[in-house]
Amino acid sequence: MAIIPQLSLFSWQDLEELGDLERLVLVLETVPDETLMAHLEAARGHGRNAYPVRAMWNSVLAGVVFQHPSIESLRRELARNAQLRMLCGFRNAAVPPASAYTRFLHRLMAEQDTVDGMFEQLVDDLAAVLPNFGQRLAMDSKGISSRAVRPAKNPTADGRRDVDADFGRKEYRGVHEDGTTWTKVVKWFGYKLHLVVDSTYELPVAWEVTKASVSDVTRAMPMLDHLHHRHGVLLSRAVLLTADRGYDDTKLIAACWDSYQIKPVIDIRNMWRDPDATRVLPGHSTVTYNYRGDVFCQDPVTGQVHTMSNGGFEVRRQRLKKRCPARFAGVSCRGQDTCPVVQGLRIPLQTDRRIFTPMDRASYQWKREYAHRTAVERVNSRLDVSFGLELHTIRGLKKMQLRCGLALIVMLAMALGRIRQRQPERMRRLVGS
């Protein structure tokens, strides 16, 4: 918890009247920054202390809370707002120069592991006060465009170019109301933020910043492994993991269930190259299935095809159950008495691990759970709008990692602070008092 040097000058009633400053106080009181402060103060030693470490750190957090797009914007606000200066801990009216912030941010980048530890501690603290925190997880990434000049063939170290960033590309597809398909391709130069969030509370539990070209699916298992090693209790609660088709990968889908007993609810791409829309289910000549997991049986008399009903999942046998549509859905079937699958059938997951998953892709439950994936999109939107990642002036991977880490720390600290104030309904309220 940060020490707020001038907090004694204000009563809580005063802070409520001050409006936005109340949010900053909430963050400063909640962020577990004792280790970071000790490291930074030890590094400073007995050197000049015109701008104390804690005051500088508090002001950096203030810049995140109040959505300042740059250090200069923060400095202007500090010069204008005496109450903010006092709350941060600056004893005199002088505002630290830009060079002081440059040096301080470089020290923070050198302490990235400690900053990451603050995020991990906040995740543990939230898991302790929210019993179902982590039950439903969602995974996605967001592109972060760089505002720097793209590197030339012979880049020079003039500070304008971003030599760490590269090009990313995402493709979106869908179907219009008239049945025609559409495709949208988004390209950008910059970075990519990979996130795992709790989709119930819309709060992050794991993150990573990479170059824009890094594939989403390659970072999925490392982040799950990190959660397993760092937040084993939280991951043990996880029941579902939702993700879009960018994470459609046999190894990931299988590992979710085999390694962590998490049911993957991951959209699927059509990877079939043959012209047939369906394939025969092994061992059942009258049963077929498509790439989306729908299973069909054939009326032995009329040859009419019916969609089989979902019968659940047998954990012990690792098999999906499918039921006769005539017996369980009221479908008319003249050959019911002679049908070989009138008693239903069981499909081993090993038939195709991508298509047949512990939660039946053809079930209504799968569709309901997949809708929770939008939680990570809302977290991404807050990072863009409320934390300034949509309009920023950051150059370099280390700076981007620090900026994203601070934004996510403030997001978690504000949520935890609201819970401790017994105001859980306001945990996602990032703006306004």
Automatic annotation (TrEMBL):
Keywords assigned by UniProt, alphabetized: Membrane, Transmembrane, Transmembrane helix
Q: Where would you find the membrane-spanning parts of this chain?
A: 400-419
Any single GO BP term: DNA transposition
Q: Where is the Transposase InsH N-terminal domain?
A: 23-107
- Entry-linked InterPro entries: Transposase_11 (IPR002559), Transposase_InsH_N (IPR008490)
- What one GO molecular function would you report for this record? DNA binding
Name of the protein described by the UniProt record: Transposase DDE domain-containing protein
